[in-house]
Fold:
Amino acid sequence: MTGVNCIVPTGDWTGEGAVWHASERALYWVDIQRRLIHRYDTESTATHTWFFDHPPVAIALTERPDTLLVAIGGGLILWQPVNDARADFVDLEDNWPAARLNDGRADPAGNFWVGSMFNNVGPEGEALPIED
Structure:
């Protein structure tokens, strides 16, 4: 086989941060600008999408198989996809919405690392200029 085959044409504007959930046999990823999280189930080949009020930028597994850690806007939330339950966990970015979290990942020891940047995503997903 040669080339690339798109199996989930979600039309993401900024799709990134993929996380494999082995026990669910599913792949999660974010679309920052459209404020979405997608889940692709490899068994059923179904894709489910959730909308968030602020841009989700990174996802991590937790010790609870039904709960994910999501970096979103200026903080972290705990999220249960099965019932879409969301709980604020910690605010990290004091300058939100002028600045937002961006790119994060859990390390092998289970620590979650996340960076921040000037916010370049507007309320409707439009690109914003980055200021000094």
